[in-house]
Amino acid sequence: MKHLITSVVMASTLISGAATAGTFRLAHDVGYAGAESLDPISPNRFFYANQMLYSRLVRQDENGQPSPDLATEWSASADAKTWTFELRKGVKFHDGSDLDSADIKYTLERIKDPEIDSPVAAVLGVIDSVNIINDHKFEIKLSAPHADLPLLLMDYRVRMIAEGSGDTITKTGNGTGPFILEELDPEGTTVLKANPNYWEGTPAADALEIIGIPDSQARVQAVMAGQIDFEDSILAQQSKLFSNNPQFQLQSIATGEWRGLVFRTDMAPLDNAKVRKALRLAVDRDEMLKLVSGEGAGTVTCDHPVWSGDQYRTNIDCSQNIAEAKKLLKEAGFENGIEVTISAADNEPEWIRMIEVYQQQAAKAGITVKLNMVPSDGYWSDVWMKHPAVATRWSQRPADQILNEGFRSTATWNETFFKNTDFDNALDAARSELNFDKRKGLYADLQNTLWEEGGALIPYHLNQTRVLRSNVTGLAPVENFSIRWHLVNAE
Amino acid sequence: MLKLILQRLGLAVFTLFTVCVLVFGVTEALPGDVCTAFLGRDAQGTRLENCRQQRNLDQPALQRFADWGTGVLQGDLGTSLKRDKSINDLVATRMRNTAVLGFGAAMIGIPLAIILGVMAALRRDKPADMMISGTSIFAMTIPEFVTATVLIFIFSIQLQWFPAVTTVRHNAPIADLIPNIILPMITLALVMMAHILRMIRSAMIDVMASDFVQMARLKGVPYWHIVFLHALPSAMLPAINIIALTIAWLLGGVVIIEQVFNYPGIGTLMIRAIYDRDLPLVQAIALILAAVYVLCNLLADLSSLALNPRLRTAR
Questions:
Q1: Residue B257: what are its φ and ψ, rounded to 5°?
Q2: In a domain, A244, yes or no
Q3: How far is CA A402 from CA A123, A124, B205, in A?
Q4: Across the interface, do A222 and B172 touch by the CB < 8 Å criterion?
Q5: Which of A187, A239, A377, A382 is the most buried (most CB within 10 A)?
Q6: ipTM above 0.90 for this complex
Q7: pLDDT in tens, A39-55
């Protein structure tokens, strides 16, 4: 019996045991239940593996601005409809073949292929055609002017694959990225090994292991027990488990994700812009952030969707102003205050808390907020974009994309039913403005318009808390898409 | 005798049918349908239509219930929405893993509970009894996720003997699962032992005071013979139902333990299915778990019949 116990203990120590030198281990949530695909444009894309296997043409630098990846230089024609790119020379795919313009043309055209029906097609909708000039130079023709084509190409799914490899890419993972596929097993452990020919130099880690752990609490346990080295996002409450412990490092990173409230701008009394402004002036955003998500768990935003890491973000002063809110309500004919009923479910734990805090804050301005609890089943189909006021959630998107997807009059997800032709025209103007400072000014005006007239209450963007074991090196406190995986190692 | 068995079987089939109706009915009563629940914010346009078409959602509910029921009777549980795979395949390996874990826990827990129960009964009200009874009740009253967390803290985080969470895939060979099931097995054994132990203890106390044991003593039968050959088999009878329920619980209800240890069993699959709003999969698992409970109870009834002649006489 004693021998049995000893051997079981030894066997398990070997399995759970200390990291092999130079292997960096991380977990993913098996969000597609084992159907994770190495095709970067599949709706089931294997998020982590694809970031390490493939490269983009353009990637973000630490300030969120476009910087060279496979493309070294780019320039636009005066009408912003034709873009010319220089391709990096000497880059090889994992199978040894050379990267050239034909691969880029193939990849971009494949993304737009209606047969494949990729969710990424919409992102590159403005691309009309790709023309090869020579092996390392190509031009992209657009159907409408777009001054921020490089931002679109920075999308984390626009990753280059070899010409003609579309049918096999799901299994081979043949890219130009810092790591090469060794074994694909999304529900177990996926193993990647270092690419010695990576254009930026040999990666610091010899291998990467991506382990499937669906439950977030279990991932936290796995970090604590040393089964993985990194967990990208933990709850603010969980950070106490790791702070002040020399075995771990914590990073807090701003993101573009938010939870907010939505008021339909086409239903009385909220069709009056003064009433909507009053609803927003009644909020004490710092207090709301602290009470709903926790101290330091977010960055205050003034009801526009552009997050703090975006180059087009403009900062507005939106501190609570009860007197002004009361004045606006009076001007709109609601001297005795108004009543608003917000429908929400518990899909997101923050929603109910947010409405409760808002109830207290808005009461001071004579606004009575009522909470209408609805079932979480069917919330997105029966309540959201149907009831006059609802709760919402959005993930991070670049300024141009989020303003067009969520606030343009014709957008499918225009949840506030905001109809403003000047706003739509300004969106088009910003897109075709080639001068960066002018463009930034135009985007700032758009954000100000939303603060003055919009129907969304976006009190803050969320921060993400990341935990690393203390032996991890080379992982900068930047958003996930900007991590330079070839520098990361667990020593 | 045969009539009794048939009666029990009939009752079991009826219970399962009721469960089928309930599971289907509850899903129907949800706001929206399977497709809107699953697609969430994307529930619009062609995607929604395609999904509804694939699921025959345009047909009347009774027709769909008949189709689903026929499928279930033929052993076809349908197709998972999110995973787009046959539910039979998804469930098979997970059920195996849950059975491995449950079997392991039962192998430790049940014999240990019986032995400790007997010891407690024989040392009634003495320090040994108080310690055994006290500890087992204490172990039972702590919620299993607390026990699990404490065990993980000690054996995985501090000592690093066992993995904190399972990282092997669901269809790995059983040998690969072994190191991962030790901590969950201990947790489950700690939680389940008290019920059986208390039952054996009180039954044993009664039996040891009964006439036939007195008689055996007076005739000079050796003490341990009396305890294990004569008293224990009678004391086991009342415990059988508890043991059956415990086994049913192990095979279906250890959701929390599986979740805490990230163990790829039927419980974690159910949680994921609920989380993904994958209603066909939720329906199938609910049905399987109900069937496990019904089956275990049926077996307990039948084995009580076999062990106790008094129950067999038709009334």
A1: -60, -45
A2: no
A3: 11, 14, 73
A4: no
A5: A187
A6: no
A7: 999 888 899 999 999 99
